[in-house]
Structure formats: C-alpha cells, structure tokens
Amino acid sequence: MKLTPSFFKRSGLIALLLGAGACTVGLVVAADTESALLERAKQVFRPLPYTAHVDDYPHSAARVELGKKLFFETRVSIDGRTGCVSCHSPSHYGADSLPRSVGVNGVVLPRNAHTVFNTPLLIAQHYGGNRVSVEEQAWKALTSPLAYGNKSFAEAEAKLHKLGYKPLFEEAFPNEKEAISAQNWAIAIGAFERTLLTPAPFDQYLKGNTKAISADAKAGLDKFISYGCAGCHSGATVGGESFQKFGLLEDYWKATGSVEIPLLKGYDKGKFHDTGKEEDQWIFKVPQLRNVAMTPPYFHDGSVATLDDAVRVMARVQLGKQLSDTDVRQIVAFLSTLTGEVPKQFKEAPRLPVAAFQRP
Ligand code: HEC
Ligand code: HEC
To answer: 172: pLDDT confidence band, cut at 50, 70 and 90?
Structure first.
C-alpha cells in the first residue's frame, strides 16, 4: 500500500457523507420549555461519538503508542526543535495560544493553530480544507517548509532510523518489509489523534441530563440556535461540517483588525489560497467550537483575543446582529459547556527513544 493523496481521501469522503447527512438544522421556534429546548438542541447537535477510529486506518495499541511518541518527537524537523507538540501542546488544550504559530527555524506561520482534539471528526483539516484527513495532514507536515522542513520523505525516514524508532515501527506495522515510512508515520500519528476526543458537560445535556449545564448556558444555547449561529456551527463538533464565507455582511478584517499577511500577499482569502478559484475567496472551514473557551486567541489569524469579542464579531459579520452584554455572557456560558478534559493520554509526555543523534 503506497501513500497517495487518493489513499487519504477515503476517510475524508466518509466524513463528508457523515457531515452532509448530519447537519439538518431544525426550524426555530420561539419561547420554549426546558424539554423543548433539549429537543431543538438534539436536532442540531450530537454527542461526541465513543471513538473516532475508522476502518480505513486500522489501529492497535502499539500503533497508538508509537503515534503518541511521534507526536511528541521534535528531532525529525530540520531544526531539531519542531514537532506536532510545539504547536499543539497539552498545556494549551492541543493548540499553542499564539496568534500565529512559530514554525521551523522561527518562521511565523500565516495562521493560528487549531486544537488537535476531536479533529478526525471534521469534514477536512485546516481552514482551507486542503488536507482530507488527519493522516494526510501528518504526512504532508514532514516536508512542509513551515512545519518540519524536510526536503524529502526519505530525509525524515532516515532520521527516524537514526533515532532508534525501527523496533517501534516494526511492532506497530508487523509483516511490513520497510516498517519505517512516511506513510506509517502518518497512520500512527493519526491513530493517536483519533483517541483525542473530549466529551463535555454539553454531551451529558444532549443525552438527557438537563442539570448538566447552567441556566445561563441554556439561555445561551437557545440564542445560539435562534440567532442562527447553529446554521454553521452544528453537529457533534459544533462546527467543522462545512465551508462558509467569513464576512458575509462586511469585510471580516474591519471587525477583527486582521493585518495583511506577506506570505499570502494580502488578507487571508481562505480556501482560495489552496484552489485558486474565484468562488473560494474568503471561504473558510467553519471551525469546531469544542473547547473554544480554552483556545484563545480566535479566528484563523488569532486576531481577536477574547471569546466575548469573537462572539460579537461573529454576530456582526455573519448575521448583521449587535449582541447585548447579556447575549454575549449567555452564549459564552453555553460555549463553555463544550470544554472537556484534556485526554489523559495526551497529558503525560511519552518516553522517546534515546539514540546517539546529533542535533542539526
Ligand atoms: C509550526 C507549528 C505547527 C506544527 C509543527 C504542527 N502544526 Fe498542526 N497546525 C498548525 C497551524 C498553524 C494549523 C492551522 C493551519 C491552517 O488552517 O491552515 C494547524 C492545523 C492542524 C490540524 C487541523 C485541525 C483543524 O481543525 O482543521 C491538525 C489535525 C494538526 N494541525 C495536526 C498536527 C500534527 C499531527 C502535527 C505533527 C505531525 C502538526 N499539526 C504540526 C501549526 C502546527
Ligand atoms: C455563515 C456561517 C457562520 C455563522 C452564522 C456563524 N459562524 Fe462562527 N465561524 C464561521 C466561520 C467560517 C469561522 C472561521 C472564521 C475564520 O477564522 O476564518 C467561524 C469562527 C467562529 C469562532 C472562532 C473559533 C476559533 O476557534 O477561532 C467562534 C467563537 C464562532 N465562530 C462563534 C459563532 C457564534 C457565537 C455565532 C452566532 C452569533 C456564529 N459563530 C455564527 C461561520 C459562521
């Protein structure tokens, strides 16, 4: 089995079908009783599934464990200091808390890092959706000049050999002649990422425990649905199911204070940078809102520091609505019910192979 982009497409396609089937947003009814609110919420959202593993990428305990080590491994990058964990760390809820991430050799990336939690459930990866699965994302990071900076997959594979990863790959990929490969790196990291789900109080609520979230959060949930936020942020991940224009009613940067990005030759135009198509200008993947209270700053460039302000910006540029302070407080209370625990297996750093390896 060789890694080609089409190999990675399969799980993306499945996610697309799931997403398309799942995002029927119910009609909005006005004043509501407690159980009617729950019923409306159930039409729009779903609890997180128990697992994000899919048949396309068979996993085993050895594969997940290897993936975890590789996620925390920084010595495969060309500066020896950059790895998934540098931009997606346990102390920052799987993101990095920077407006825009800092990559290999100190380069400032054009975008803000998403959290890695729950991402295998999304329609595609990245704001432009240019990675169909978490596996394709991990694969291409190896040779990205902004992430690991390797000139070729062979260069990265040679480092994995030198670092002493051979027995670990052989255990995770038994019966393969060349167990160390960029493809298997991606499959192992994907297997680990697929364990990083973060169930939250809102899931308890959706399963019928109406005491799991506060009265303020319920009022916020009500507004989130009736004002139209849930038209885009829906499903199990409260977003991540579709691509939408950012700035439906006014140019987004006027509300966010975004600056032009030299690498993108202006304001970030989203999907357009991946496809070059006019109709993809200003189209971004709707981000998931799980754990959003824990992953400031906000938007694709981290241009907005607080969740209160991000909620105000959204109402203004997507819905043409001015929110009151009470609206904002209640919507933020609802969004805070999407905060789960940092998964235990992500909190504890793994022991990495020790090898006579020179830092570049
Ligand atoms: C130098 C910082 C950096 C490194 C290293 C890095 N990432 Fe990221 N990651 C980002 C940024 C920035 C984004 C957003 C990119 C975009 O949307 O265009 C991102 C996006 C993602 C996403 C998409 C999530 C979503 O909601 O769409 C996943 C998954 C991910 N990274 C996983 C990884 C994994 C796995 C590794 C290691 C193989 C890795 N990242 C290495 C900064 C980094
Ligand atoms: C028409 C679709 C649409 C609607 C309606 C919408 N959003 Fe969004 N939302 C998006 C998109 C697209 C982004 C990503 C923007 C970017 O950063 O490029 C986003 C981003 C966000 C973010 C930032 C997430 C992060 O991690 O940076 C928050 C918070 C948010 N939306 C909340 C809301 C709230 C609250 C409402 C209702 C007041 C709402 N959204 C309405 C499409 C929508």
So the answer is: very high
